[in-house]
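Summary for the lay section of the report: proteins are chains of building blocks that fold into shapes. Here we show the chain for Enoyl-[acyl-carrier-protein] reductase, mitochondrial and then a coded description of the shape we predicted for it.
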Amino acid sequence: MWGCGALCGARAPAQLQRCLLPASRRHRQPAAASFSASAEPSRVRALVYGNHGDPAKVVELKNLELAAMGGSDVHVKMLAAPINPSDINMIQGNYGYLPPLPAVGGNEGVGQVVAVGSHVTRVKPGDWVIPTNVGLGTWRTEAVFSEEALLGVPKDIPLLSAATLCVNPCTAYRMLMDFEQLRPGDSVIQNASNSGVGQAVIQIAAALGLRTINVVRDRPDIQKLIDRLKNLGADHVVTEEELRKHELKNLFKNMPQPRLALNCVGGKSSTELLRRLAPGGTMVTYGGMAKQPVVASVSLLIFKNLKIRGFWMSKWKEDHSPDQFKELILTLCHLIRRGQLTAPACSEVPLQDYQRALEASMQPFVSSKQILTMC
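The coded shape description reads as follows.
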């Protein structure tokens, strides 16, 4: 299951690996050194993995020491953090970025500022913050982070929207904006449409006046899923099997062929997306849930001049300034306030019940994102 939600940033500050060291070791360990559990129980609880492997086996709930704050640090109480496919991939050891081990899991979430160092200027106690860097480790009750690793977000948006803001919606928005010059009335086709990114694509596309063709795997409760996606703004929802049928061409009698396809699956599903693209169109791959390669027909590439691209939010952020990332987040917050972008379907699970949440997040046909709550 390769992640459908790309991560928020490209590098984790080395300081964050020090923040959980016992005080006696904190100043004499190299920056990349691992942390250890506190010798005495503390109020900081965290989901830690010391080896790569099956998340259900390698992730443990531990008590950790809270680091002393420096002048540029921020003490954050975490409120909620999702379990994304990319988090699972990172624990398994098959993601594009792997933090030094042992590591705290989680790359996304929202926390509230408890205290700030004397040099901190961008956030204040009481503010909500989200991570800007990959590998920050959000599956914990609280932590001390550097100011540069955090971005303040408005507190007038729903908590679950804030907790799931910097991965899936960012990925969806950038893919819709950066690869084809789409105009109101144009169409987009995507697979894995019930994923977090897929749900964000449906809503953002609707807000932009774009029409969507949404592909999902068949399942016993397929009509329930179709109804839910249409309530989000989906124009059409079809199964993988229906996508392969010749009759699907009738769909384009009343709407233009899509110039943009968004692929999170790979294999035959991605090949079918390519077949449905308009000449000169682009397919963007941002995940590979089927663990199968993208196979493109030579004739499609030559005679339809199709383009095949890839996208990783971490790379986008590496190539853009913090101000550009902040602008992206504020744009999404504006959509949230207007009711045009909601959090994906979520199941809130207390941190201590993490095993249940991890197992649920890896089940097939899951349409509900697991959210770890820290209170």
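Put simply, here is one thing we learned. The CA atoms of residues 112 and 120 lie 15 Å apart.
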